[in-house]
Amino acid sequence: MTIAPTPEPPYTAVIFTSLRTSDDQEGYTRASERMARLAEAQPGFLGVESAREGLGLTVSYWATEADAAAWKQVAEHLLARRRGREVWYADYAVRVATVTRAYGPDGPHRSSGPGAG
Amino acid sequence: MTIAPTPEPPYTAVIFTSLRTSDDQEGYTRASERMARLAEAQPGFLGVESAREGLGLTVSYWATEADAAAWKQVAEHLLARRRGREVWYADYAVRVATVTRAYGPDGPHRSSGPGAG
């Protein structure tokens, strides 16, 4: 996984922090991969960054808060989230945030591709 | 590490995503621990969540954007960040965001302690 090539702010970040149970590792892994593919296909998806080291952190980036909210309502995602609450997660927090400033080693924000900068 | 017990929004999140070099592991670990202790002692510090799995993600939470900006200017932190740019990180991104909504399995936001809810 790499650092998401997000555009100049503002955009929306959804910070998902979780603690896993030890249940249904196979189903969890399969659903995670499926949800990642589905999210990428959503309107307004900008990128995602994720790591788990005991605590799991996934930050997904969206063009607008409405785009993030629409992804939350996708039927297959609703089902996966229910299974998350019931089986996969011992605890979690979701924080929806508006990114107002961004910078990296080379300047005020990360490029979104050719012509940006 | 646990999920940070942040108060009801709004508050500020600083999302730090990084890719490490393989250099100076010992110095990096020592500085990380020192910076975590220093950050906790700063005005407005609400909590931090962190995981590294190839990609490193650290999200620190602050009462206000000014509190987050003040931490950025602490002398020892400035020195650590310079060393990060020069030695520890192959790449990184910092995103400063305003959390507008937060929820967990039990409701609209996470409790900040007794009486909150």
Q: Can you give a write-up of this model?
A:
The structure is a homodimer of 117-residue chains. Chain A is 32% helix and 36% strand. The first copy, chain A, contains three helices and four strands. Chain A has a four-stranded antiparallel sheet with strand order 2-3-1-4. The longest helix of chain A has 16 residues. The radius of gyration of chain A is 15 Å and the shape is globular. The mean pLDDT of chain A is 92. The interface between A and B is large, with 40 and 40 residues.
Features:
homodimer, 117 residues, alpha+beta, Alpha-Beta Plaits, four-stranded antiparallel beta sheet
Concise overview:
Chain A has helices spanning 25-40, 65-72, 75-88; strands spanning 11-20, 45-53, 55-62, 89-103. The first copy, chain A, has 117 residues and is an alpha+beta fold. Chain A has a domain at 24-103: Alpha-Beta Plaits.
Blueprint (SSEs and pairs):
2 copies of one chain form a homodimer.
Chain A (H helix, E strand, L loop, with lengths): L10 E10 L4 H16 L4 E9 L1 E8 L2 H8 L2 H14 E15 L14
Antiparallel strand pairs in A: 1-3, 1-4, 2-3
Helix pairs in contact in A: 1-3
